[in-house]
Known about the structure:
By secondary structure, the protein is α+β, with helices and mostly antiparallel strands. The protein is built from 7 helices and 29 strands.
Amino acid sequence: MQTPSPGNAPQKPAGEEIDEDDVIRVKTTLITSPVLVIGRNGKYVPTLRREDFHLYEEGIEQKLAYFAPVDRPITLAIVIDTSRSAVFELRNIQDAAISLISQMRPNDQALIVSFSSEVKLLAEPTSDLNKLRTAVLNATTGGATRVYDAVDFVLNQKLAGIAGRKAIVLLTDGVDTESRDATYQTTLNDAAKSDALIYAIQFSTYAHLAKQAQRVRRAPPEGSGFSRVDYQRADAYLHQLSDLTGAPVYPAVDTSDLDRAVANISEELHNEYSIGYYPTVKGAPGEVRRMEVRVNQPRLTVRARTSYAFDQAGVPVAHATKREAVTPSELAEIGSLPSSRLFAESKLPRDGRWMCKDLKVTSDYAVVKEGFDANCPASTRAHDETNAWFIRRPRPSETLCKGFLMWNGSEVAGAPIPTGYAVVGELSSPACSRSRDPRRPANAWSVRTPGANETVCKRFMIPRGYIVIGEKKTAACPSTSNENNAWLITTKSRP
């Protein structure tokens, strides 16, 4: 998002197109969106022109005021964690940064920032690859970690005055221990208002530090940078930061993950369009508006911003902007401790979002992951390290978190079973908070839209249009007072 200064016409970035008719709209915010276009073969389409794009707000087509094709230069801020927790990863971090630099195009430029106890500018924006590589190799480790201050410095001091396409690549575990000038929330607010993409390459340093902590009998306290909660907060922060700007988080457990992350980021940045428009109607505080980008060529998939919101001052900020997600697997943790993850790119559902744990979840949605969100109150369950749910419309076959909550002094499964779905079993999922009942350790339900004949667990609603024709015993379902713990159901229309 770009906000022209009052009294000054918007400046035209080098090589980018701003409609001259819009220079009079000096008090209106330019709403921008990065756009990726993908063909049926899964490859990016970099050859489209301005006239190929159409942008809609709440279903009404808007006049494009800004367009940057994929060959426009990029300013890339490479931000390197050099704190003591990253000491044993520094060589890999430096290799990743140098690989990103090596894949820059001639007109691109990059700046290098490191952070530990101090936030250091190692290289001003430049296209000189040798200067950039030298700056990266000169980074040294040690000290505490100022992640939030580093993000604040890059967004508000280094990139704010640079026109054109911008991106930040954070190479870090995300744990902050000593920021002085910025906080978790202030940097999220700044990211929401920025037009820079923020990619995170997330190194998992927890396992190494946990081994060190085993030598000490007392668990490290929260805020020390070594506790499990600190790492959960860090993981949630990196995902929220990337979500707000529409970029993925890339967990890097080994060098193959790292190589893949660097290659994907470089390819995306070099195949990304940027378009923008000026809203014709002023927004109300808290209002959310839907956006849609289309192209006038068939059989192409478009990934772009899907909405934006107005803050309490009436200033547009990013909202529901995630265009791609790097999903580890069906049962991997998001918003919790980093673990080995598979890179399977898929579009995040438009209706998917994080929410604080609550019984008020519509039965059209499913709780599929649990995590930590600094904006949510702590869980009332003893030893619960999560306080937020990720909800979305369920797939035909789904693993749902039971969503344990305290209710009237007792622990209950608070997440709903989506309408039209049948419970076919229970299981343990690392994406969900743990059960505190040793007799029933399973913390998730396996559900699906039933077929014509289905075996489903007792104690749950039978989906509309089905009837019970028998019962049986199955190890997949929880036990009941009756030996048979499952129903056999079939469609009513079946003879």
